[in-house]
Write a structure and sequence with these properties.
By secondary structure, this protein is mainly α. The protein has one domain. Helix 1 links the parallel strand 1 and strand 2. Helix 2 runs antiparallel to helix 3. It starts with 8 loop residues before the first strand and ends with a helix.
Length: about 60
């Protein structure tokens, strides 16, 4: 995606493997390739602009 001019963002809460070592290796590779890693909570905060916003609380309940 980066080669095509996109700036990929990985929601790291959803990165999974049978081995935690592989998750760590994936994170290392993302850092090496300068791919942003973010949590779902951070995305929700950016969308609602406040942890106390009713929308944030409502959506947070659905994704947990």
């Amino acid at each position: 995606m980066k080669v095509a001019g996109y700036n990929p963002i990985v929601v790291f809460d959803y990165v999974s493997s049978r081995s935690f070592d592989n998750v760590d290796l994936a994170a290392e590779r993302f850092r090496f390739d300068r791919i942003m890693m973010i949590s779902i909570e951070s995305i929700l905060f950016e969308l609602t602009r406040s942890f106390s916003a009713p929308e944030f609380k409502e959506i947070s309940k659905m994704v947990k």
